[in-house]
């Protein structure tokens, strides 16, 4: 049976602590007390939901969550009133607006929060949400640095938050069929996986001449920048998540922006741990615009039993077997190279190229992975059952860390050796130091969560 939500008479933090001494799987007694009638309250079997970051991605997650009948939108936060006010107006009977996320985290009766802010905010806000006893839907990339990934995972673990990282494609039936196929053994032993994401924004990128533009009225630029290095306001930077990926300090570039969706499939299907060596090259070669991220990035991840590669280009959209016409457009793909054959797949299509007759007589594996109700709705159901969703940080850190280290390897211009057991960079003091970000004052990195 699904466990009920808590009432206003018991703080959620005390409730979470009490679960540690409750037998696993034992139902909780439902509390039928009438909650406060003030704005933002809801019956005890409802989930009071907040949102931090009311841009395109955050509001899309919010729409998906509100499809669940037990969700009540209780609080919303954005540093830009033009984005905050429409959300508050839409849910005017229950929703309180905030411009400082720390005030939202203290909102009375709040149960869960969507974090849809730019990537440079993810770690700090997720950790503070976990400390507040909230469940978390955290947009990808989970974080931008190795130290942040470990800290978020450890904070969620310590405070027993139910956390889903927002790689929505993970919920697709197509990905489930690909996982079953890879695990069936039909492809044989897989020695190499190749992944890529390409598009062509050359040479003008997002445009030039917009730095030092006046900050719009109602936008707190200093708070938007937060713990990252402060740069002049640029209207392109605040447009949406697509444009964030052209700046290093606020996104890490296009590899953290898209690789979590794409490398998720091989990490899932092959049950990969951490890589032991990460080698990357790349740079900003062609694009001339206001942004500063690399426009080409090539990565090799060495795992104990296979190699995985990544190619990202913002200056050419050639898609190999996924070309599908000559139009310049965004393309992506994943190749599993096995001893019996190669699987080519993307978000919705697949093809198998056998090695001669090695796959003759093989049939598609039976469907064994149930369909998802949707990435956000899975999270809502897990909040009620108190079971972690499929893309919780314990899983997703295996996706996140290789990506973060690939960007660091490119910056340093050398390979990084990584110890999966200690979750530490080895033999490179500079890389180990840079893997833990230094936040802009007065924000401080939560070093207390670096130890397991």
Rounded radius of gyration (Å) = 22 Å
Estimate what percentage of residues fall within beta strands.
15-25%
In percent, how helical is the residue content? Answer: 25-40%
Contiguous helical run count: 15
What is the average per-residue confidence, as pLDDT, rounded to a whole number?
Answer: 91
- How many strand segments? 16
Low-confidence stretches: 1-43
Shape: globular
- Distance between the amino and carboxyl termini: 32 Å
Profile the largest sheet.
Answer: 10 strands, mixed
Category from helices, strands and their pairing: alpha/beta
Give an overview in words.
- With 452 residues, the protein is an alpha/beta fold.
- Strands 7, 8, 9, 10, 11, 12, 13, 14, 15 and 16 form a ten-stranded mixed β-sheet that branches.
- Helix 6 links the parallel strand 5 and strand 6.
- Helix 6 packs antiparallel against helix 14.
- The radius of gyration is 22 Å and the shape is globular.
- It starts with 11 loop residues before the first helix and ends in an 18-residue tail after the last helix.
């Amino acid at each position: 049976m699904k466990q009920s939500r808590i009432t206003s008479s018991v703080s959620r933090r005390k409730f979470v602590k009490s679960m540690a001494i409750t037998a696993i799987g034992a139902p909780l007694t439902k509390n039928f007390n009438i909650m406060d009638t003030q704005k933002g309250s809801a019956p005890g079997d409802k989930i009071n939901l907040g949102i931090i970051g009311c841009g395109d991605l955050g509001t899309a997650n919010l729409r998906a969550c509100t499809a669940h009948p037990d969700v009540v939108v209780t609080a919303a936060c954005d540093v830009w009133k033009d984005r905050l006010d429409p959300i508050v107006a839409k849910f005017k009977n229950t929703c309180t607006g905030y411009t400082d996320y720390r005030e939202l985290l203290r909102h009375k009766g709040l149960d869960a929060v969507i974090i849809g802010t730019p990537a440079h905010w993810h770690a700090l806000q997720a950790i503070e949400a976990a400390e507040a006893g909230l469940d978390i839907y955290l947009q990808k990339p989970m974080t931008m640095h190795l130290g942040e990934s470990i800290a978020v995972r450890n904070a969620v673990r310590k405070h027993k938050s139910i956390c889903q990282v927002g790689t929505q494609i993970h919920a697709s039936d197509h990905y489930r069929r690909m996982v079953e196929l890879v695990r069936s053994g039909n492809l044989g032993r897989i020695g190499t996986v190749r992944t890529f994401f390409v598009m062509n924004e050359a040479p003008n990128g997002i445009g030039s001449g917009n730095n030092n533009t006046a900050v719009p009225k109602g936008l707190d630029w200093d708070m938007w920048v937060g713990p990252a290095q402060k740069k002049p306001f640029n209207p392109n930077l605040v447009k949406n998540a697509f444009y964030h990926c052209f700046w290093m300090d606020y996104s890490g570039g296009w590899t953290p922006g898209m690789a979590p969706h794409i490398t998720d499939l091989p990490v899932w299907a092959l049950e990969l741990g951490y890589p032991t060596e990460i080698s990357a090259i790349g740079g900003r070669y062609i694009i001339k615009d206001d942004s500063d991220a690399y426009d080409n990035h090539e990565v090799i991840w060495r795992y104990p039993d296979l190699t995985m590669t990544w190619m990202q280009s913002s200056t050419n959209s050639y898609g190999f077997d996924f070309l599908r016409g000559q139009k310049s457009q965004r393309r992506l793909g994943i190749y599993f190279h096995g001893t019996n054959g190669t699987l080519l797949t993307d978000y919705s299509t697949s093809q198998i190229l056998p090695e001669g007759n090695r796959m003759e007589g093989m049939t598609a594996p039976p469907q064994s992975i149930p369909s998802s109700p949707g990435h956000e709705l899975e999270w809502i159901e897990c909040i009620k059952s108190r079971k972690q969703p499929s893309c919780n940080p314990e899983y997703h850190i295996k996706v996140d860390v290789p990506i973060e280290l690939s960007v660091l390897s490119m910056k340093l211009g050398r390979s990084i050796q990584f110890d999966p057991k200690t979750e530490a960079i080895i033999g490179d003091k500079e890389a180990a130091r840079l893997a833990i970000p230094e936040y802009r004052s007065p924000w401080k990195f939560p070093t207390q969560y670096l130890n397991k």
